[in-house]
């Protein structure tokens, strides 16, 4: 009898298992998979929805839709004659290794301005000060940018990650990249390659430094639709058709795209490996290729990428390394070129239309790169590309763009602020005023109506709020600080103000 009960129990367990297993398998088949659907003609959103699709993006510049679909629906749509491809929404990453050096990258707020070795190596400091990227819009597709950093001027941006609509950096990588491109030429921190560009923060990667091709594609679309001139991408991942199409659409729209070759000491990653993108490898201070730098026929230029000092989170500064750090050196030089007059140099305006285009930019950078390390008789190699980017050589013989002739942006000079520290309470400063005089460069002529931006500092700590004022008829702008209160016996040692930008 006992054996009979045992056999019956086993049979019941087998029967239960047969019921449970198919049910489990059936539920997993209902899970939706993120994909990108490319259409041969106009994208059909209704078709996608009819198959249970949750649309994430319907792109405007390529015939594609980013969507999550059940596996069964993907199998069915793969046989639809109007669909060109269905591909996985691959993950992309910032340069994972090597990363920050040292483990704590932040150094004290607002140190005196220094010239990072990478900026010096590519001779960006030798470019005439009138050619500084003014009027050029550079989008950094990354983890965001710390738009409160005192050494950065961020004109705008957008978040493409799911958890926030704020495009501020929450990882540090994007802020570091942005500083190499365009840290402001003031008295603090560092200076970037093209300090007068307009930076745009396109946050497509999360706080861990990862994201998806669908979001990168959407960020590229935003750049196309918002008249961006340069896209800088210090990211890497695998190949997708949609990303190739999106980058080509940007290139065809006149946008110069620069991307990191990658840090695996292997073949060049995507999007850098695409023909529409300038792939950048990394060098050290001895001009040797960094041990981690990827290589291959797609590498177009090399740039400093080891122990690079730049802006970091919280208003600080830090060193990082990787092809991620090399890329913004090239992006900055592209911005400098675009702010120059293509017609002012012999053999530069290839099509004779008086405007820079991506092909002409690449030709100029490649022709003027420092190629001493490339073997005689070779024009290009797989480690350095055409050589180390050289800003001074690229701009040699070129003048300020016609569009900027007579512009006051690069000709305005702000005096050191005069701080009135007489406003006290109990021996402690509670507020102050800063007076800034604006003149034309090389003169004492006042500039009325100039827009002056800046931030307050007390005891080396920057207030996060950017303040603005307009100069009066005498070229003077006056700023009044917020009211600060200091607890107990704390006495601030100094109260200061610094100017971040002056424009008309």
UniProtKB/TrEMBL annotation:
CDD domains hit by this protein: Peptidases_S8_Subtilisin_subset (cd07477)
InterPro entries: Peptidase_S8/S53_dom (IPR000209), Peptidase_S8/S53_dom_sf (IPR036852), Peptidase_S8_Asp-AS (IPR023827), Peptidase_S8_His-AS (IPR022398), Peptidase_S8_Ser-AS (IPR023828), Peptidase_S8_subtilisin-like (IPR050131), Peptidase_S8_subtilisin-rel (IPR015500), S8pro/Inhibitor_I9_sf (IPR037045)
Record keywords, A-Z: Hydrolase, Metal-binding, Protease, Serine protease
Domain Peptidase S8/S53: 133-387
Residue stretches making up the Tk-SP N-propeptide domain: 28-69
Active-site annotation: 142, 173, 324
Listed GO biological process terms: proteolysis
GO molecular function, one term: metal ion binding
Family: Belongs to the peptidase S8 family.
Name used for this protein in its record: Subtilisin
Species name: Methanolobus profundi
